[in-house]
UniProtKB/TrEMBL annotation:
Family per similarity comment: Belongs to the GMC oxidoreductase family.
InterPro entries registered for this protein in UniProt: FAD/NAD-bd_sf, GMC_Oxidoreductase-Related, GMC_OxRdtase_N
Alphabetized UniProt keyword annotations: FAD, Flavoprotein, Signal
Signal peptide: 1-26
Residues annotated as domain Glucose-methanol-choline oxidoreductase N-terminal: 119-142, 279-293
Gene3D superfamilies: FAD/NAD(P)-binding domain
Source organism of the structure: Aquilegia coerulea
PANTHER family noted in UniProt: OS04G0573100 PROTEIN (PTHR45968:SF3), OSJNBA0019K04.7 PROTEIN (PTHR45968)
Domain of life: Eukaryota
GO molecular function: flavin adenine dinucleotide binding; oxidoreductase activity, acting on CH-OH group of donors
Protein name (record): Glucose-methanol-choline oxidoreductase N-terminal domain-containing protein
Length: 393
């Protein structure tokens, strides 16, 4: 497969566009027979498709392709199942504050000082985030040139397993009423659709407060067609260049949890592919490690340049956020994002509640919210002090 930048982006889009509604359930999470630790992998193995990264794109792609092909899904992290910090709503934030080598979250600080975390677990960011579920706007789908009917079918396929209507308790009800009072109207009730006004969106936490992730979508997989390797770190994508107009990917090198290296190769065939879905940071990083990226940058790291592609790794940005902390003298229920105010100017107003956000310990759980030098985030220090004074009353 030619791993050009456009092809890479196209592979991610496939996860949304594939019409998967007719597939039946094969195995129930977490008892997947096709999930193995990477130490059990043979030295060399062969597949029709090799997917790098078992997150919100990789899992549905693997489930889809396994219906008709042999598929290898390589995930550098472990399983989300059995980890109460991932599964239980009440423990939200504990995974983000876990900095052990086996943590599902890998903290990092960008070159310009921004705190964040990379997912390192089967299911990707859906194992760590606040679990708010919503569909893209109609304008977004049209501008992307997607088939609206096919997109809606794909949404329904996902929603059958991982999306739920949240219970509306005191805090989120107050948020809803406050948004309407200040004019974020109309009130659109509960809906997955992206509509201007105030709405109750979906959640990936069920009524019992248990998280459902993209890893659950592997229930749609054909167990005979899929192999999932956990704790496997891909080091390089292998390309053939001799006699080729463009470099053609034919395999990957990965190491298991013991540091032993293995090789996975594509079977011979015109449609066999390596799909890179390792996230917004991991995917360009792996391309560059494999020789695809800005030539000058690669040479500075003694990486042989295979394709000089200046745009790989460029243009990374995140959504800007203004966070306001409101201390309370009374215990407040734990709730994540359920109500959202969607404004005509494109900004979104959301709120969460609970000790995970308000307490000093909770503040430490979210590196992206921590006060930083030369930052506008000095307010949380005062809020933390206020919380301490309230807690003494």
């Amino acid at each position: 497969m030619d791993l050009s930048w456009c092809r890479f982006v196209g592979a991610l889009v496939v996860a949304i566009l594939l019409c998967l509604q007719g597939f039946c359930y094969s195995e129930q999470a977490p008892n997947y027979s096709f999930v193995h630790d990477s130490t059990s992998a043979p030295n060399i193995s062969y597949y029709d498709y090799i997917i790098i990264g078992g997150g919100t794109a990789g899992c549905p792609l693997a489930a889809t392709l396994s219906q008709n092909y042999s598929v290898l899904l390589i995930e550098r992290g472990g399983s989300p199942y059995g980890n109460p910090n991932i599964t239980n709503l009440a423990n939200f934030g504990a995974s983000l504050s876990d900095n052990t080598p086996t943590s599902p979250a890998q903290p990092f600080i960008s070159e310009d000082g921004v705190y964040n975390s990379r997912a390192r677990v089967l299911g990707g960011g859906s194992c760590l985030n606040a679990g708010f579920y919503t569909r893209a706007s109609v304008d977004y789908v049209n501008n992307a040139g997607w088939d609206g009917n096919l997109v809606n079918q794909s949404y329904q396929w996902v929603e059958k397993l991982v999306a739920f209507e949240p219970p509306m308790r005191q805090w989120q009800s107050a948020v809803r009423d406050g948004l309407l009072e200040v004019g974020v109207t109309p009130y659109n009730g509960f809906t997955y659709d992206h509509i201007i006004g105030t709405k109750v969106g979906g959640t990936i936490f069920d009524r019992d407060g248990h998280r459902h992730t993209a890893a659950d979508l592997l229930e749609y997989a054909n167990p005979k067609g899929l192999t999932v390797l956990l704790n496997a770190t891909v080091h390089q994508i292998l390309f053939r260049t001799k006699g080729k107009a463009k470099p053609t990917a034919h395999g990957v090198i990965f190491s298991d949890s013991l540091g032993i290296k293995h090789r996975a190769q594509l079977n011979k065939g015109s449609k066999n592919e390596i799909i890179l879905s390792a996230g917004a940071l991991g995917s360009p990083q792996l391309l560059m490690l494999s020789g695809v990226g800005p030539a000058e940058h690669l040479r500075s790291h003694n990486i042989t340049v295979l394709v000089d592609q200046p745009m790989v790794g460029q243009g990374m940005s995140d959504n800007p956020m203004n966070a306001i902390y409101i201390p309370s003298p009374l215990d407040v229920e734990v709730s994540l994002i359920q109500v959202v105010g969607i404004t005509p100017v494109g900004s979104y107003i959301e709120a969460a509640s609970g000790a995970n956000f308000g307490s000093p310990a909770g503040m430490q759980s979210f590196g992206m919210f921590e006060p930083q030098e030369n930052s506008s985030l000095y307010v949380p220090i005062k809020v933390t002090q206020a919380w301490r004074s309230f807690s003494k009353q």
